[in-house]
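Notes on consecutive records. When two proteins share a document, each keeps its own sequence and its own C-alpha cell line. Never mix them. Below: protein one.
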Amino acid sequence: KIYKEYLKDIDSEIDRLTNLIQKLLDLTKITEQGLNLVEVPLIELIEDSIKVVKPLAQSSNVWITVDIQNNPTVLCDPERIVEVLINLIDNSLKYTDLSKTERYVDITGQNRTNSYLLSIEDNGIGIKEKDLESIFEKFYRSDFSRSRDTGGAGIGLSIVYNILKAHNWSIGVESKQGKGTTFKIKIPNKFLLIP
C-alpha cells in the first residue's frame, strides 16, 4: 500500500514536470516561430477559454460572466490568445476566496480612444502589493501561492506576458488583498475590426 502511494506521488510529479517542460517549450516557440495571425471574433476566443475552465469554475462555485462591448474581431494567433485567457481565468479560479458566498470572474471589453480594453476581474483573495511588480517574471510565485500549493510553477503569467508582447498588446494588473484582482489587456486599434 505504501508503494502505491509513492508511485502515485511520483506519477503526479512526473505529470507536473512534463507540464512545466511543455510550457517552457511553448514559451520558446513564441519567440522562435512567431505567430499565426488571423482575424477572429474576440467572443469566440473567450468562449473557447471558458469551455476549458468551466469544470473548475463549477467545482469552485464561481460564476463567470461576459460583457463584450461591440463584439470586435481581433487580428491575433487564436491558439495563443486562448492560452492567455485560460491562464488568467484559471488563476482567478485557483485563488478564489472560499470564505465568500458569492464568487465571480467577470470578463468585460470596452472601447478606448486608441485601443480596446479586455478585463478579467475576480473577487478572490487578491495579490499583495509587493508581489505585483514581479508577477509576470518567469518562475515567480508569491509566498501565498507557495503556501496554498496550487500546483503552479510560476510560469503561467510569464507566458501570458510574452504572448501578449509578441502580439504588440500589453497587460497590467490591479489588485487589493482580500478584495480581488483585475488583469487588463490593452489591444491597440490596429489589431481590431469593430462591426
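Protein two starts on the next line and is unrelated to protein one.
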Amino acid sequence: MDFAASLIYTPTLTTNIMESNQIPFLSHLPDNTPNVTASTSRAVKDAIRTYFDEDGPISDYVIISDVKQQVVDGLIEDPRLHGRINMRMFYNEDIRKLIVKLPRAEHEKATHALSKLIYDETFIQGMNYDFTPCGATTFRSAPYSKEGDMSFMPERPLLGRNQSWPTVVIETGASENIHRLRLEAEWWITQSRGLVKTIVIISIERTDPRIAFEVWKLQAAVSQHHHQRYALRTFGTPIVPTKAQEVVMRRSGNATVTNGAPLIICFEDLFLRTPSSSVEKDYSFNAVQLEEVAHRVWRGQGFM
C-alpha cells in the first residue's frame, strides 16, 4: 500500500496540511500576462478574443478579474459561450479571478498524441470498458474550478471514494512556463488530498526541438523541509507532491535523442486496484512511442 492509499482509504487516519493548501493562485505566470476585467460571459469571450491572431493565441494565459461564480458556471455548462475559443479555465471564487490558459497547436498535438498512447494501451489490456476519458472536464473544489488538458478515471466507482476527482491528469504548456505547470500539478494532488494520483506534465520548447515529460505523484518527503507548504502528514510521515520521473527528448541533426524512457503510468494509479491478470500491468511507453509524440509536435513546429 502506498502512502496516498493509506491517506485516502483508511477511515481512522488523521491527516493535515502542514501549512495552508491554498496555492499561490497567480504565481509563476509569465510577466507579460494580460490582466483584464470582465464581469459577463460575453465580456469574458470578447476579452479572450483580443489575444488571438490568425496564427492562434498571442498569450499563453489571460487573467480575468471581477468574474462571479455564475459566469464561470455558464462558461462551463454552455461551451458555445466560448465562441469556439479553445481554452482551459482555472477559477478562484474567493478572489473572483479566472486564469485562462490558451493552448497552442503544438500543445494540443502533444496532449492528443500521449492520450492516444494511453487509449491504445487500455484497449490492448482489455480495459477499455473500465476506463473513462474525461477530456478537459471542469473539476470543482471550493473555492476553485479547474480544467486540465486531459484527464482519466476508472469507469467503476470505488466504494468510499469521492468520485468528483480524476485519477490521472495531463497538463501541457510551453517550457518557459514549467514552474506554473508544476504548481498546477501540485494543486491537483493537494486539493484532492491525494485522490488525483498522477499528473503528467508535457513541456514544449518554442524555439528548439525539445520536449520533456514529467510525472508528479505523492511520495515520502526526502527531508522535513521538502515542499513543506504542500505536504500532507500521515502517521507522522510527510508525503509531498514530487517529480517521480522525467523523460527528455531532443532533436540532434537527423536523430532524436531520448533520456529517461520509458514513461510509466502505474496501473493502480489509474484504476485504483492492483492488476488481476497477466495482461494487466503498468502503462510503459518506450522511447520509440514517445518519439512519435515528439515528431508530431516538431513537424507542426517546422523542425522536421
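For the record: Residues 1-21, 225-229 have pLDDT under 50 and may be disordered.
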